[in-house]
Each structure stands twice: as structure tokens, then as C-alpha cells.
Specification:
This protein has 420 residues and is mostly helical. 73% of the residues lie in helices and 4% in strands. The model is unreliable at 378-420 (pLDDT under 50).
């Protein structure tokens, strides 16, 4: 089940960045400037930022998760069909916004299904599979879509993504049980989970870590060519190295994050800030710059499955709204980082500006992580879905209850009992 959802996030991740490689073709086809065509990127971020939380609770929080997933995929497909029509920028923006609603809803509900299926003790590992799908999309899906759009027309990848989404919906119909796992999830129950201060510290950390990375990575091509002297033809290879480092660290973060969430988050965030500072100071050599770009992918993306796993631990399993807000926090980080990097690039700092802005934002991310880590239960805990009782994360095993020299061993709870 988790791997199926990870495969679908590959499609979702490809959609998120597809416009970046096709902006010249889109601007020509729509009869607008490249800058105006770039609003197709902005509207997707806004749609996921605002729409995902609304869609997670507005339609019917009591609907089965399978129904919500199918609806999300069909909305996503319809958005790409609309986006592929030659009807002007307005309709294209509407299509991108619809795709964003489907994307955000899928992430919110899919994360709930993945973490529930894996069990609370392996929630971070489950999320590493889903995040890995998005990372792989940046490594393979986006370059392939760009090449397809250049060879056979910019509409081709839009039609392909719509077809893949419909096919994925058909697979969901066959593979995901039609349970009522969300039947007791009322709006009041969803919003009550948001009262925990540690949850908002995690959201703030998500936005700041993401913005630190994106402040640099949004402008990676001109920074590598203009400052490091890298040939333009070699930039895709550097981006491929970034993606490979991100993919490897996503898997590593997923394995370590269940047992030591803040023991993974704090060092990885500090290393991200250090790499960004190194990019600002020493990335004048093409070799050094490429090595640092790969290290940035490895350091920054190790945090993604861990912070989502923390949302599960704080809010409890089976909650769509907290997951949707985590998606929004990522989009806030993308928007903030892109803006900060652009402002720094046009300042007197010039090409040193984006990595310096990223360094400052990554260091700021350590501020919410410190109190969140102090108030987190030692070793990480999960909350059962029905009773709210807590247990230690890690591999499930027997629980020992000491009583003098002898003690009784209680058997490990069945997975179905780990519900709140």
C-alpha cells in the first residue's frame, strides 16, 4: 500500500515542477510574457497552501479515505486536461489551481493511509517512501516531461499526467479497501488536534527548512553558470546530483527518524545551513560548487520524512487536517525561499545573496526545533487512535513491567490496537 502511494506521489511531484522546464513554450502558446506564464507556478503553490486544508475537511471528513483519494486523483486529472487546452492564461491558471487542490488533498489523505498502514512506530519510514516519490520525480519525471514537451508539444506531458492520474484512480479502486476509517473524524475532532503548541513549532520548522533550500535552489542554474563558471550543458547533471543526494538522504532520514526524530532533524538542519554558507563563500569553482549542491540535497531532504512523521506523532494517526497543514507549510517555505533568494540576488550581494539568504533561513529553523525537541517525549512516542495512550516508537516488542526481582512480560499490542 505504501509503495503504491509512493508511486502516485511520483506523478504528483512531476506535476509540481513541470512548468519550470516548459515556460518558453507556454508563454508562446498562451501569448503572454515568460514572467506572466510563471504565475502558473505561483498558483499551484497557492492552491496547495490554501486548498489542501480546506479540501481535507470541507467536503465530508467522514467519507472513506478511498473515496477521498479517488476524488483527489480525478480532480488532479481534470486540472491537467483544462491546462492542456489552448484557451488563454485564465483557463490555464484555473486548471493549475484544480490540479493543486487534487495534489494537496491526495497528500493529506495519502499520508494518513500510509502512516496508518505502516503503524505509528514506522510512520517516518512510510513517509520517506512518499517523499521519495516526489524526489524521484525531480530526478527523472521533470526532465523526461520537459524533453517530451520540447519534442512533441508542451501539451503532451499534461495529457500524460492526466492519463496517469486516471489510471492511478482505477488502481486505488481495486487495491485500497473501502473502509470507514475516517468515519469518526469530525471537523471538531480535526481542529482539536491543532491545539498542541509543538505541532505549530514543527510547521514553522518545515517552512523555514524548505525556504532555506529553495532560496538557493530556485536560482541554481544562473548561480552555477555565472559564479562557478559551470557550462550550461552541465547544469542538468548538477541538478541530477542534487536529486540523487536528496533521494538517498530521504531514505536515510526515514530509517533514523522513527527512533531519534530530533537527533536527526537538528544535525541535518545545521548541516544544511553549513552547506549553504559554504556555497556563499567558496562556490567559485565549478567542481566545488557541484559537490556542495549534491551535499545540499543530501542534507536538506533528510528532514522531510522526519518532520512529517513528527506531525503524525503530535496530532495522532488518522488525521487529515494536520497533514494538509504540513503540505501548506512546505508550500509556504517554497514561496518564501523563492522570494528571499530573488530579493538577495537583485541586491548588492549579487550571486552570493541566495545562498546567504538560505543560510539565514536554515539557521532560523533551529529556533523552533530546540523547544519542540525539549518537549518531545524521550525517544519519540505515538498516540493510539482511540484511547490517547502513548507508547515508545521503534520496533514493536514486549513491554516489561518491573516488580522487584521478577517481572511479568505483557505481549506487544496488535497493530489494530494502536489507534487513538
Amino acid at each position: 500500500m505504501v509503495w503504491l502511494l509512493g508511486a502516485i506521489t511520483f506523478v504528483m511531484g512531476t506535476s509540481e515542477m513541470i512548468v519550470t522546464g516548459l515556460l518558453p513554450q507556454l508563454s508562446a502558446a498562451l501569448g503572454v510574457s515568460v514572467a506572466r506564464a510563471g504565475t502558473l507556478i505561483t498558483v499551484l503553490a497557492v492552491g496547495m497552501m490554501i486548498g489542501a486544508p480546506a479540501m481535507s475537511v470541507a467536503p465530508a471528513p467522514a467519507a472513506p479515505h478511498r473515496t477521498a483519494l479517488i476524488a483527489a486523483l480525478l480532480i488532479f486529472a481534470a486540472g491537467h486536461v483544462v491546462g492542456a487546452l489552448r484557451s488563454g492564461l485564465g483557463l490555464s491558471l484555473a486548471g493549475r489551481f484544480a490540479a493543486a487542490l487534487g495534489n494537496g488533498t491526495f497528500w493529506a489523505v495519502g499520508a494518513v493511509i500510509a502512516t496508518t498502514a505502516a503503524g505509528p512506530a514506522a510512520s517516518t519510514r512510510a513517509m520517506s517512501v512518499m517523499v521519495g516519490g516526489t524526489t524521484l520525480a525531480n530526478v527523472i519525471g521533470v526532465p523526461l516531461s520537459t524533453a517530451a514537451g520540447q519534442l512533441s508539444g508542451w501539451q503532451t506531458p499534461f495529457w500524460a499526467l492526466a492519463a496517469l492520474a486516471v489510471a492511478a484512480a482505477a488502481v486505488i479502486v481495486r487495491r485500497v479497501p473501502a473502509d470507514r476509517s475516517g468515519a469518526d473524524s469530525t471537523l471538531r475532532a480535526e481542529t482539536s488536534t491543532l491545539r498542541h503548541p509543538r505541532l505549530w513549532l514543527v510547521y514553522l520548522a518545515i517552512a523555514l527548512i524548505q525556504s532555506g533550500i529553495m532560496a538557493f535552489y530556485s536560482y541554481v542554474a544562473p548561480l552555477l553558470t555565472d559564479r562557478a563558471g559551470l557550462a550550461a550543458a552541465a547544469v542538468p547533471l548538477a541538478m541530477l546530483g542534487f536529486g540523487a543526494g536528496a533521494l538517498a538522504s530521504t531514505a536515510l532520514g526515514g530509517r533514523r527518524g522513527d527512533g531519534k526524530p530530533y537527533g536527526t532533524l537538528v544535525p541535518a538542519t545545521a548541516l544544511t545551513a553549513a552547506v549553504l554558507a559554504a556555497l556563499a563563500l567558496w562556490a567559485t569553482s565549478s567542481v566545488v560548487a557541484v559537490v556542495l549542491v549534491v551535499l545540499l540535497g543530501a542534507a536538506g531532504f533528510a528532514t522531510n520524512p522526519v518532520v512529517i512523521g513528527e506531525v503524525v506523532r503530535v496530532a495522532g494517526a488518522g488525521r487529515a487536517l494536520p497533514m494538509a497543514l504540513a503540505t501548506s507549510a512546505f508550500q509556504v517555505g517554497i514561496a518564501l525561499g523563492s522570494w528571499a533568494g530573488g530579493a538577495a540576488l537583485t541586491s548588492t550581494l549579487n550571486t552570493q545573496g541566495p545562498p546567504l539568504a538560505g543560510t539565514a533561513l536554515a539557521l532560523l529553523a533551529l529556533v523552533p526545533l530546540r523547544p519542540a525537541g525539549r518537549h518531545a517525549p524521550q525517544g519519540g512516542t505515538w498516540r493510539t487512535e482511540r484511547t490517547g495512550r502513548t507508547g515508545r516508537t521503534g520496533r514493536p516488542g514486549p513491554r516489561h513491567r518491573p516488580s522487584g526481582r521478577s517481572h511479568r512480560v505483557d505481549p506487544a499490542p496488535e497493530p489494530s490496537a494502536r489507534r487513538r
